[in-house]
Amino acid sequence: MTANATVTVTAESLRRFVTALFTRVGMSDTHAATVADVLVWADLRGVASHGVTRVPRYVELVAAGDINPRPAMQVRTDTRAAVLLDADRAAGPVAMTDGMRRAIEKARSAGVGLALVRATTHTAALGYYTLMA
């Protein structure tokens, strides 16, 4: 293979590979799969700056202690329509996905839902979370 060769893989293969990388640095299978899904999603939409190109940086952040691979996320404030989630330095995609799920639940019961997430890291492509709603 030459230095300029192009390698094409399926999105599912890439998800599995990235998931495996993150489990190797200590993330749970579920959290690793969430981060992989968000990063691959970004690449599939042409947002490479927030896709799997972030993997080396995320691994560095885990090694440096900036990303907690096993966060104990906690709800700090919970009202009928809003929630404040302390992410315990979770990878951004893990914290943001959890926050958006909580906001959706609030919206279903209260008509509007707001989730605020603190103590997280790089969130990857924000469009992923808005499309969840």
Q: What is the distance, rounded to the nearest whole angstrom, between the alpha carbons of the first and last residues?
A: 43 Å
Ranges with pLDDT <50 over ≥5 residues? none
Shape: globular
Radius of gyration of CA atoms, rounded to a whole number: 16 Å
Portion in beta strands: 15-25%
Number of strands: 3
Number of helices: 5
Rounded average pLDDT: 96
Helix fraction bin:
40-55%
Largest sheet: 3 strands, mixed
Class derived from helix and strand content? alpha+beta
Largest sheet: spatial strand order: 1-2-3
Return the string of H and E elements: HHHEEHEH
Topology:
Layout: H1 11-24, H2 29-44, H3 55-64, E1 74-78, E2 82-90, H4 92-110, E3 114-120, H5 127-132
Parallel strand pairs: 2-3
Antiparallel strand pairs: 1-2
Helix pairs in contact: 1-2, 2-4
